[in-house]
Every structure is written in structure tokens, then in C-alpha cells.
Input
Amino acid sequence: MGMTAPVFNIQKFSLDDGPGIRTVVFLKGCPLRCAWCANPESQAAYTQLEWDARSCRGCGACAAASEAVTLAFDGDGSPRVTVDHRRLAAEGGQGAVADACRWGAMTPVGADRAVDEVVGECLKDKPFYEESGGGVTFSGGEALLWPDFVVEAAGRLHDEGVPCAMETTGHGEPEVFGRVAGALDLVLFDVKHWDDACHREGTGVGLERIGANLRSAFSSGADVLCRTPVIPGFNIDASLSDDAVAETADGLAGWVLSAWRDAGRGGDGRPRLQLLPFHQFGENKYALLGRDYGLEGVAQLRPEDVEPLARALRERGVDAFV
Output
């Protein structure tokens, strides 16, 4: 098969992960554990099973296929299936369990796919890239966990005239980040918080590597777009008051501009930053994986809710937009 990586989705006709019409290759595996993650199926770097309670009939075939799967019944008689995803992956039993379910309640998420296969799938949309100025974006999860795969796939796509981007948390070895970023045309770099302790509490990792890699990206002269998910209660007070906006703008602008200046870009334009309003589109995925969703009750944000923050960031020297 050649070089492979675990892919859980190849999304066509995306307009949200870089310029133009794009194909987004979602890779499994992420070193962060963000409570608001809209793709929880991306976090583990192996194939998992999603269990859909609406389709389950409680027949027990899945549990009979593997000891990593258990079946119980709630007080009202509703079936409740629990999957030990790590154990099932170690056994390699995901396919057998999914095949055993004749009701379609068990769906494998993610599979190893070869570079040739992924590149071939992306090239089917080449006319749309050419017409719109689009291309391919490697996302996740975290693309930095699969550097050889991304570099080789991007090289093949470049040979066909297709621009490539990466959406990244920035949390990776600096040598790996530099090698992968150097193979791409655009880096979409997450900036989730400016305070190390708050970032660590919300994501599970600190800012040391992320800051170093952002400075590296800026100093390389690469096309970099910072992106911040605006999360009430994490990086902005839920009140969205003027004081809350000012506090968040001060923190974000200070951290991004510090990296910009440290990279020697102080007098060279302004860093770009896109604000992403919080949404709960991924909530149902947690139930499918047998996990609790940690942000239930947090209000979704509309673009107009975060526009004051964009204005405040622009006033502080960051080219921000929603």
C-alpha cells in the first residue's frame, strides 16, 4: 500500500479551511484534549466504533463478537452498549464487531489510507481548485503526528499544481513542524489561549512548543493565518461584555504580536487572525463514542457576537476578522 496514515474523513467542497474550494483530509490522532472539540473521533490515532442508540435493537451480537464490547439495559429496557476502544483496537476487532451488527448501529471511524489513494481522491476535484483558487488542507486531529505522510502527499499534489495547507494546533517537535510547514503553502495555526496555565487546563498541554512553532512560522515568511475558537468561559468571559472583550483582545493581541516581533516581523505588515464562534455541532459525536460532552449549556455564538472582539483586535494591531 505504500505509506499510510489513519484518515477519518475526506471532506469535499469545503469553504472553511483555506481559500477557495478545498478538499480537507482529516487525520486521526491529536495531542490535545480540548473540551469544545467538534471532532472527538479525531483524538485517538486508531479506528474506533461509533454506536448509534437509535438503531440498536439490543441483540447482543456486538458483545458476542468481542469482549471489548459490553451490552446492558437501562431501567426502561433501552439497550446500552459500551466499547473499550483502546482494547478493541489492540485486538483489531473493529471490523468484526461492525460486521456482526445487522442493524447498522456500529460504524467504524477511521482507517489507514495510502498516500496514493488520498492524493487520487483529492485530484478528482482539481478543476474546482483551479476555478476557485482552492486546494487541499490537511487537518485532524493533528497533521503533525503524520509528518512523512503529509510531506509526501503535499509533494505529489504540488507536482499536479495543487496548493496545500495545514490546520494545526502547533503542538509538535520544532524540527517536525518546520519540515511539514516548509512543504505547504499555507499554515492555519490555532491560537486558543495566551496564558500557559489556562491553555494547559483547557487543552491538556502548555504553550512552550506552540509559541516556538508560531515564531518559526512567522520567521519563515510562510503564509500564516492564526485562528482562535472563541469559547465562552475559556478564552472570553461568558458575558461578552466590553470589559470581557477588552481583556481577551489584550491577551490575544499581546501573545500573537509578541511572536510576530520575536520573529523579526515587527515592521512587516500585521499578523492575520480569524475568529471562530463557538458552536455545538459536534455534541452528538460524543454520545456515539460513549463519552460525556463537557460544554452542554454553553451558548453558541453568532458571527455578530464576536465582531466586537475582531474590532478590538484590529485596534491593537492584529488583522482580525470573523
